[in-house]
Amino acid sequence: MQKNIVLTGITPSGTPHLGNYVGAIKPAIDFAKNKDLICYYFIADYHSLIKVWDAELRKQYTREIATTWLSLGLDQNLDNILFYKQSDIPQIMELNWILSTMASKGILNRAHAYKSLVNKNIKNNESDRDKSITMGLFNYPILMAADILLFDAKHIPVGKDQVQHIEIARDIASRLNHVYKKNILTLPEAKIDKMSATILGLDGRKMSKSYKNTIPIYSTEKKLRKSIMKIITNSQLPDEKKDPNNSTVFTIYQNFASDVEINTLKEKYLAGGMGWGDAKQILYEKINNELIGFREKYEHYQANPQLIDDIMNEHGVKARHIASQNISKIRNLIGI
Ligand code: ADP
Ligand code: TRP
């Protein structure tokens, strides 16, 4: 039986934070442990070109993401995973063009990211509704379709904001299959983990690099503690009873603790007598414990960056080999 292919990309546009860990990295590492699946995980550095314009920063984010995934337990020696850089696979660019000839402009006009920029221009009474919008941003979904369709991926674990992109990839794939009269491209499906919670940030909103409210996955113990102590709470005094359902500290704790631990903390909230500083200390110790082994590996890779480059290069070679076979089939079909 042919194995299902899971594929997802990570844009190097920021330093990985605890929201990324719980919402994306942990589930992806768990998928990779299932031998019945083949997992392709890659760093979408070409995608980052639309919002990061600093070469050194791009390199830094790329290395941080690779180091984070590998240190958190993505096992590069498993033979069902490939972990590569998008820019190491030139066939993605070739397919990008082929797919652009199948992508309906109307659908791209309706893509959320593009539409919201157009709406902003209209709201600001700009005479040009496309002001400051690059073709890179407009074509972003086509490149994403190329990432996915080149590798016959079926399941695409993504956040809700990416679902429309997967639908666009499906649309482009069906169009090409129809035009060239062969079901050569697999139609991908977004895999949304409804159970995976949204981690809240320091200010109680969704943790996100755009809100600058993140807790980085990698930091020293001291910095981690300092960030956790910054979580905004209400002004209740230590002896007052506290509502666990209305507490960012408690909500974050739920994503790291066992059911028993969660209940114990809940009781402490409800009983009163525990100050916010104590609750934060409990949260800090929990997260810190989970990250101790990770931190050591991260520092080891950081001290030996060549190790990361070697892994990405080795996986890049394997992914390129598969990409080259797949693109040949597509070239053949379209008469090139
Ligand atoms: P950001 O919001 O910081 O820009 P990204 O959009 O780069 O994060 O997200 C990368 C992945 O991490 C996505 O799969 C997304 O669903 C997940 N993710 C990001 N923030 C959170 C969060 N606060 N809670 C849970 N998952 C998150
Ligand atoms: N656009 C995705 C994001 O910003 C990253 C990405 C690029 C991706 N190519 C992909 C995700 C292909 C899934 C499949 O989160």
State the share of residues found in helices, binned by percent.
Answer: 40-55%
The coarse overall form would be globular
What is the string of helix and strand elements?
EHEHHEHHHHEHEHHHHH
Tally of alpha and pi helices: 13
Tell me what the structure shows.
The protein has 13 helices and five strands. Strands 1-2-3 form a three-stranded parallel β-sheet. A two-stranded parallel sheet has the order 4-5. It is 54% helix and 7% strand. With 336 residues, the protein is mostly helical. Bound molecules: adenosine-5'-diphosphate and tryptophan. Tryptophan binds next to strand 1 and helix 7. Adenosine-5'-diphosphate (ADP) is lined by residues 11, 14, 19-20, 22-24, 158-159, 198-199, 206-210.
